[in-house]
Amino acid sequence: MTKMKTKKAVAARFKVTASGKLKHAQPGKRHLMNGKAPKRKRQLRNPAVLFDSLAKTYKRMMCVE
HSE-up of 45 (CA within 13 Å, CB side)? Predict the structure, then answer.
């Protein structure tokens, strides 16, 4: 069986933490920032952890187990 190739699009968007979870940037901070409250913009700065159901699929795409 051949080696699995890493999906580079997934690898660029997610980083694996030391505990094996997937960390990603929050969506919604590229444009139209005037209409968003300062609290919302501040909270969007922090990275989020992906929930387990999708994390399993994305880890397989990244060839991380």
Answer: 6
- Average pLDDT value for residue range 52-57: 94
pLDDT of 18 higher than 90: yes
Q: Are 8 and 42 in contact (CB under 8 A)?
A: no
Does residue 1 surpass a pLDDT of 90?
A: no
Measuring CA to CA, how many Å separate 39 from each of 5, 35, 45?
40, 12, 10
pLDDT of res. 49 = 97
Q: Which DSSP string do the residues of 3-18 spell out, in sequence order?
A: PPPP-HHHHHHEEE-T
| Beta-strand pair 22-24/14-16 | antiparallel
Beta-bridge partners for 16 = 22
Any residues with CB less than 8 A from the CB of 30 and at least 6 apart, and which?
none
